[in-house]
Design brief:
With 194 residues, the protein is α/β, with parallel strands linked by helices. The protein has one domain: Rossmann fold. The protein contains nine helices and five strands, in the order βαβαααβαβαααβα. The protein has a five-stranded parallel β-sheet. The longest helix has 15 residues. It starts with a strand and ends in a 6-residue tail after the last helix. The protein binds BIS(adenosine)-5'-pentaphosphate (AP5).
Amino acid sequence: MLNIILFGPPGAGKGTQSEKLIAKYKLLHLSTGDLLRSEIAANTPLGIEAKKFMDEGKLVPDEVVIGMIENKLEAHHDAAGFIFDGFPRTVAQAKALDELLAKHGHPITAMVAMEVPHVELVKRLVNRGLTSGRSDDTEEVINKRIDEYESKTRPVAKHYETQQKFSPINGIGEVEEVFDRIIEIINNAPIISL
Ligand code: AP5
């Protein structure tokens, strides 16, 4: 079972590369951002609450996103593996994910971290904001999202570095070039079962 975390700041290309990885490895895509936006579109109490945080570029509380991931893992325990996109985003989320996966006997295989400079992230997301309809794709909120990443999410890399599962790659270049760097890491990662 392949369990891959695609890691990186807002605009690094996690969603773009997830689509390609799903097609190649037949994995299930777990994007907490997409799950939260579905809740907002359905106007659920969870979505209404989450929107307040997302519109300000802040992280949604841990218990909300951990609960969503737990439900998805339970519902798809027969999957060939998962791509975690935008999760875990805090050390508490990483510890919760490790515990959930340990129950299923298939821990994280690798965390691939796409590194992209701040100026390029803002450029990509402002450009996406012209058509995405995402209320958080404005320059002001984009900068807050990047600050939130630096203070709360970057430490998650250390968590997987100590497990020897952390692989940084250059996230600049054509989408295909970045994809080739990711698959090289995945294809060389040891598959572990508990
Ligand atoms: P989320 O939806 O996860 O957004 P994000 O992390 O900010 O990531 P993005 O979707 O903006 O960027 P991406 O890295 O996927 O890049 P993409 O491929 O789209 O989270 C949104 C909000 O939800 C958070 O702020 C938070 O409030 C909440 N949330 C979500 N998960 C949470 C969690 N676990 N805990 C708490 N709160 C949570 O690409 C971006 C653009 O760049 C696109 O236009 C793309 O075409 C372009 N692009 C991609 N690759 C390249 C390339 N190689 N060269 C040039 N352009 C490229």
